[in-house]
Amino acid sequence: MDRRRLSALSDLHRLSALKSDSELARLAAVAASRNRLRSAVEALRETEAPLGPAPAPGAQPAPLDPALLGARLAHRRWIEAQQKRLNQQLALVTADYLRQKPAAARAFGRAKVLEERGDRARVTLLQTRDRKVRDGP
User: Which of 20, 64, 70, 136 is the most core-located residue (most Cβ within 10 A)?
Assistant: First the structure.
């Protein structure tokens, strides 16, 4: 392989590495968004409180204050609405992640192959040059 072809291969590798970095950065941003949404959904699940205090074993449940019960029911409805909204967003982001993952893998694979071919070409070029120097013109 001559220097001109090695240079062209090196240029292709640089371009494919840029494309790979771009695709991986896009995938990382979608993954971070996905993780944030999952955390938000989990946080809402953890904040959901029971409607009243748990009665002691064998005791009669205490009557609940209607205003407190109404507030807790309203809060539970709000939590459910937020969970629904977040789950819809999570589904969209997950679909985007699943679409972008193969493109990132393909770009990464192409960059890796071009890097390996460039390395082999450099070694071959150096071996050829050394052979010419050793054997003479």
Answer: 20
Q: Residue written as tokens 């494919």?
A: 16
Q: Are the beta carbons of 53 and 59 closer than 8 angstroms?
A: no
Per-residue model confidence as pLDDT tens digits over 24-71: 999 999 999 999 999 999 998 888 666 556 666 776 666 678 888 888
* Of 27, 20, 7, the residue nearest 99 (C-alpha): 27
Which two structure tokens, joined as six digits, stand for 127?
């071996």
Neighbours of 88 (CB within 10 A): 11
- C-alpha closest to that of 79 among 53, 48, 38: 48
Does pTM top 0.85 for this prediction? no
Beta strands per DSSP E along the chain:
none
pLDDT value at residue 52 = 58
DSSP designation for 58: T
pLDDT attached to residue 2:
78
